[in-house]
TrEMBL record:
<feature type="transmembrane region" description="Helical">
    <location>
        <begin position="146"/>
        <end position="165"/>
    </location>
</feature>
<feature type="domain" description="EamA">
    <location>
        <begin position="144"/>
        <end position="274"/>
    </location>
</feature>
<feature type="transmembrane region" description="Helical">
    <location>
        <begin position="172"/>
        <end position="191"/>
    </location>
</feature>
<feature type="transmembrane region" description="Helical">
    <location>
        <begin position="257"/>
        <end position="275"/>
    </location>
</feature>
<keyword id="KW-0472">Membrane</keyword>
<dbReference type="InterPro" id="IPR000620">
    <property type="entry name" value="EamA_dom"/>
</dbReference>
<comment type="similarity">
    <text>Belongs to the EamA transporter family.</text>
</comment>
<dbReference type="GO" id="GO:0005886">
    <property type="term" value="C:plasma membrane"/>
</dbReference>
<feature type="transmembrane region" description="Helical">
    <location>
        <begin position="92"/>
        <end position="112"/>
    </location>
</feature>
<feature type="transmembrane region" description="Helical">
    <location>
        <begin position="63"/>
        <end position="80"/>
    </location>
</feature>
<feature type="domain" description="EamA">
    <location>
        <begin position="10"/>
        <end position="135"/>
    </location>
</feature>
<dbReference type="Pfam" id="PF00892">
    <property type="entry name" value="EamA"/>
</dbReference>
<feature type="transmembrane region" description="Helical">
    <location>
        <begin position="229"/>
        <end position="251"/>
    </location>
</feature>
<dbReference type="InterPro" id="IPR051258">
    <property type="entry name" value="Diverse_Substrate_Transporter"/>
</dbReference>
<keyword id="KW-1133">Transmembrane helix</keyword>
<keyword id="KW-0812">Transmembrane</keyword>
<dbReference type="InterPro" id="IPR037185">
    <property type="entry name" value="EmrE-like"/>
</dbReference>
Length: 292
């Protein structure tokens, strides 16, 4: 039963992230991006650590090392995305970040020697086409696009590592370690200029919500879910984030419903449906031998 809940849970996480696009945009206008990320991730790690402090003691040295590596991968991914967004459009950023869904099966195949099934490649292709239709309006390659592409590569590496190293029993502790490492990394990067964040409620209330719900809660669910899903299935689920961002943009910000949003979103949903059929097929082989 828990395995059947893993994919829907990950889709819920993407819905949460999609719903926070507007909030993140408003907050980053009040503080430098690295300072905002440092506060967000350190606060999230602190909340989880204070809630269940004993969980960190259950990790072995190897698990600690795995958690630190995954945190570094995630931190570098966020940095590439954050710095790249300063030099390109939000739509292009969303599409290139979504290219992690293409990198993931390649990485899984090369590094882990996992066999990638035709249905998985079909889902990856359909999802990529959907992301492109939703977001791309002209394509150029520059510094911003290169940095975001680097971020997408590290997001894919993080997804693969999470599916390979996460287990149901250590999901909570691994989440604390990962978020803490991202926070420290961003803090170090922003250290030369000092931590520059406003002290008013218009900043801290949304940041607290982002830290607790969209970071601590979301990454805890992702870590738990990926203990039960292959990396490629997880990456396909994460492509739903721009779809939900578009939906909430229409509902909350009054964005126009365009053919691009409808058609692109439909293709991503079709890719997810293919993935759902594969992950809920009764006759599944053991996870250690599962086809990606």
């Amino acid at each position: 039963m828990t395995r059947l809940l893993a994919l829907p849970s990950l889709v819920v996480v993407t819905a949460v992230w999609g719903a926070t696009f507007v909030v993140v945009k408003d907050v980053t206008e009040q503080a430098p991006p690295m300072d905002f990320l440092a506060v967000r991730f350190l606060l999230a790690a602190g909340v989880l650590a204070l809630w269940r402090p004993g969980r960190l003691l259950t990790l072995s040295r190897r698990q600690w090392a795995n958690g630190v590596v995954m945190g570094l991968l995630l931190g570098i991914a966020y940095m590439g995305q954050t710095f790249g967004q300063q030099y390109t459009s939000a739509s292009m950023s969303g599409f290139i970040t979504g290219m992690a869904v293409v990198f993931t099966p390649i990485i899984a195949g090369l590094l882990l020697r996992r066999r990638i099934g035709l249905s998985t490649w079909a889902a990856v292709t359909i999802a990529t086409a959907g992301l492109g239709i939703m977001t791309v309006r002209g394509f150029t390659i520059g510094l911003g696009e290169g940095l975001i592409l680097l971020g997408a590569l590290f997001f894919a590496l993080h997804v693969v590592a999470l599916s390979e190293w996460s287990t149901a029993g250590d999901a909570y502790a691994l989440t604390i370690v990962q978020l803490g490492v991202v926070g420290v990394l961003c803090l170090i990067l922003g250290a030369p200029n000092g931590l520059d964040v406003p002290g008013d409620r218009s900043f801290w209330i949304p940041v607290a919500g982002l830290a607790v719900i969209a970071t601590a809660g979301a990454y805890l669910v992702q870590t738990w879910a990926q203990a039960r899903l292959s990396a490629v299935v997880a990456a396909l689920a994460l492509t739903m984030e721009p779809v939900f961002a578009g939906v909430f943009g229409v509902l909350v910000d009054g964005d126009e419903i365009t053919v691009r949003i409808v058609l692109g979103g439909a293709l991503v949903v079709i890719a997810m449906a293919i993935t759902e059929i594969r992950t809920t097929t009764p006759a599944r082989i053991p996870e250690t031998q599962a086809e990606y």
